[in-house]
Amino acid sequence: MKILVISASPRADGNSHALARSAIDGARDAGHDVEHVFLDDYVQQMLGNCRMCRRPQDGRCSLDDRYAELLLDKILPADGIVFAMPLYFYGMPGRLKTVFDRLFCYTANSAPEQDVVVDGITGKNVGVLISCEESYVGATQGVAAQFQELTRYLNQNLVGVVVGNANSRGEIVHDPSDPLARARDLGARLFAIRVTDYRIDTARSNRVWDGAVHS
Ligand SMILES: Cc1cc2nc3c(=O)[nH]c(=O)nc-3n(C[C@H](O)[C@H](O)[C@H](O)COP(=O)(O)O)c2cc1C
């Protein structure tokens, strides 16, 4: 499968990059085709007023950076996306939030590529890797909840969220909860991890795992 790993930290030698590298290694070892991008190279502008920004000749977004390339050539063709990010003020970094904000310009009814983008953005398996200084659960709960809603809205599957604690560059290797191993596993099993979202009438047996011993 094709996996795109998106690094949202400006620190290319930072902690979330270490998480991204582990996920990449795991995914490649599992036989997946992995591409890794840094958001800094693609996203420089924030969402504007689409009515003012669209090019008069074809209605396309006129913001002058590489967002369209990221979305159309990299995000849409991927079967899975892994977002690697630092926690900034209990949320995702602004540049990453802009990736979602600007999706509006490509999915609105007035967008020339609406059908292609809506069709291409759905159905992906998504993993999230977060590096942050603080360890209490509430610190990352907002981001996790936002990704749960984003993926639900985009008709994607949120497969897992890995949180590691670190501040200085690279010190995430010392987190005893071993977030690098968990990131590696998420990359390797992005399409194999069990994701459920039952309704009361979902047909299912009373067992979760085939072959499990029960009493
Ligand atoms: C602008 C900014 C805001 C931050 N806000 C938080 C925060 O709210 N909670 C937290 O635990 N860490 C916070 N941090 C610390 C980073 O999340 C942490 O250093 C992380 O490991 C950096 O990842 P990186 O090396 O990939 O850039 C913040 C750091 C910066 C630069």
Task: Explain what the structure shows.
The protein has 215 residues and is α/β, with parallel strands linked by helices. It has one domain: Rossmann fold, CATH 3.40.50.360. It is built from eight helices and five strands; from the N terminus they run E-H-E-H-H-E-H-H-H-E-H-E-H. Strands 2-1-3-4-5 form a five-stranded parallel β-sheet, with helices on both faces. Helix 1 runs parallel beside helix 8. The mean pLDDT is 96. Bound molecules: flavin mononucleotide (FMN). Residues 9, 11, 14-17, 86-90, 131-134, 139, 166-167, 169 line the site of flavin mononucleotide (FMN).
Number of domains: 1
The end-to-end span amounts to 38 Å
Number-wise, the strands total 5
What is the CATH fold-level name? Rossmann fold
Overall shape? globular
What's the name of the CATH homologous superfamily? Flavodoxin domain
The proportion of strand residues reads 15-25%
From the 3D coordinates, which CATH architecture would you assign? Answer: 3-Layer(aba) Sandwich
Percent helix, as a range, is 25-40%
Low-confidence stretches: none
What key attributes describe this structure?
215 residues; ISF_SsuE-like; 5-stranded parallel sheet; Rossmann fold; binds flavin mononucleotide; FMN; globular; 5 strands; alpha/beta; Flavoprotein-like_sf; flavoprotein
